[in-house]
Write a structure and sequence with these properties.
By secondary structure, the chain is α/β, with parallel strands linked by helices. It has 3 domains: 15-121, Fumarate Reductase Iron-sulfur Protein, Chain B, domain 2; 149-281, Rossmann fold; 288-406, Rossmann fold, CATH 3.40.50.10700. The chain contains 18 helices and 9 strands. It has helices spanning 18-21, 48-53, 60-70, 81-88, 95-98, 108-121, 128-140, 178-183, 188-200, 217-221, 225-240, 252-261, 273-282, 312-320, 345-348, 350-366, 377-389, 399-406, and strands at 164-165, 173-175, 205-207, 246-249, 269-272, 294-298, 324-326, 371-374, 395-398.
Length: 407
């Protein structure tokens, strides 16, 4: 187990966190934006589950209490339905861990993941909605119960690009769309726009198409670690055999998983598309011609922000787009508020996910934005649901859509 609270460090067993759990001093910083950064009193709280349920067990210090209780060796301690709910409502956003300043070795988010794994081993998980997802991944290599043959169906509308098959042709860059941008109707346009942008930048790229499989992120976040390891081994073997220099993905979850959970096992660099586009701009390989005329705010996805430290590249891209009036929300960068859909929460606790997203949409409205931009399919799905629930809310788009529009 790692000795720092860096987001993305390996998750240990529950027993390994026992001593650390006793060091939690309940200072409360894990549940709020840094007091020095609070700009608006309405947006000080930063734990999605805790801010909804208002009960200590749903916050990081309460999860430390559960670790102490579950590792105390008391055979009479019962695992209740409420306890299971409290553990699985964690979105794994990482804010508690990123903001745990007093004791740098505490890993409250990893504790949440360790608790999920422990409950599954004890027969109290996966939750039924998560079980459906896990079975779908096992049966179809994706969580959407969609056939493998349909993974590259999105390419039908961009046949003029002549996208290479990376399993048959040598390419420098592998574009890895991931499950969401390959199958979800509202997101497949992100795959198309990303391919168009890579083509416009003169990038030698290809895809795996039907041979691409889930990165395992969803299984990992809900605690199904054994299944995740199975997919990780298969992906590492397949991807390393391609001889690529770079893997690029527009999915924050895929990026985080390859960047952190696959760390040290891949023979190439892994970049999120925002890093890659920022690089193309610096090299003068992309230029923008069209004025967009939008008041835009940017939502930092947890899985490229706190998990990957990618705060500046998306903002550099936005600053390069003509006709963009950029307006920051109150909670940004490492203090960004989660969209509410991660960690399997949107699947198992849709009301919590929607309420969390609506708070974020209101925050965007407070700064006068007419467009919310992100670069994570889960963020886009959940924020769009919240935007649609409240007439007059800002439109939600992926950053690649704006880049494509401006080209």
């Amino acid at each position: 187990m790692a000795s720092s609270n860096r987001i993305g460090d390996p998750v240990g067993s529950l027993q390994e966190y026992r001593n650390l759990a006793w060091k939690c001093v309940r200072c409360g910083l894990c549940r709020m934006v840094n007091p020095e950064k609070v700009i608006h009193p309405s947006w000080w709280e930063n734990c999605p589950a805790g801010s909804r349920y208002k009960y200590e067990t749903y916050f990081a210090p309460g999860r430390h209490e559960l670790v102490r209780a579950l590792t105390a060796g008391n055979p009479e301690l019962g695992i209740t339905e409420r306890m299971v709910e409290a553990v699985f409502t964690c979105t794994s956003c990482g804010h508690c861990q990123a903001n745990c300043h007093p004791i740098k070795e505490l890993q409250p988010m990893n504790v949440g993941l360790a608790l999920k794994r422990h409950l599954i081993r004890m027969g109290h998980g996966p939750l039924e909605p998560h079980h459906v997802i896990i079975q779908s991944i096992l049966n179809y290599d994706n969580p959407w119960m969609s056939p493998r043959s349909g993974r590259a169906k999105w390419t039908n509308k961009v046949k003029q690009l002549k996208i290479k098959d990376a399993s048959k042709e040598k390419v420098e860059v592998l574009y890895f769309p991931g499950c969401n941008d390959s199958y979800v109707p509202g997101l497949v346009d992100v795959s198309r726009t990303t391919a168009r942008i890579l083509s416009a930048g003169g990038v030698d790229f290809g895809i795996l198409g039907a041979k691409e499989r889930c990165c395992g992120s969803t299984a990992f976040r809900v605690g199904a670690v054994e299944m995740f390891e199975k997919y990780k081994r298969a992906n590492v073997q397949q991807l390393n055999s391609l001889g690529i220099r770079t893997l690029v993905t527009a999915c924050a979850g895929c990026y985080s998983t390859f960047h952190n959970e696959y760390r040290g096992e891949l023979a190439f660099e892994v970049l999120h598309i925002v890093e890659f586009i920022a690089r193309l701009l610096e090299e003068g390989k992309l230029s923008f011609r069209r004025e967009l005329n939008k008041k835009v705010t940017y939502h930092d996805p947890c899985h490229i922000g706190r998990y990957g430290g990618l705060y500046d590249p998306p903002r550099r891209i936005l600053s390069a787009l003509p006709g963009i009036e950029f307006r920051e929300m109150y909670r940004i960068r490492e203090y960004s508020f989660c969209c509410g859909s991660g960690g399997g929460v949107k699947t198992a606790f849709p009301e919590l996910a929607l309420e969390t997203a609506r708070k974020r949409v209101l925050e965007a409205m407070d700064v006068g934005a007419d467009t919310i931009v992100s670069c994570c399919p889960f963020c886009e799905m959940n924020l769009t649901d919240a935007s649609n629930a409240d007439p007059g809310s800002p439109r939600v788009v992926d950053l690649m859509e704006l880049v494509s529009e401006a080209l």
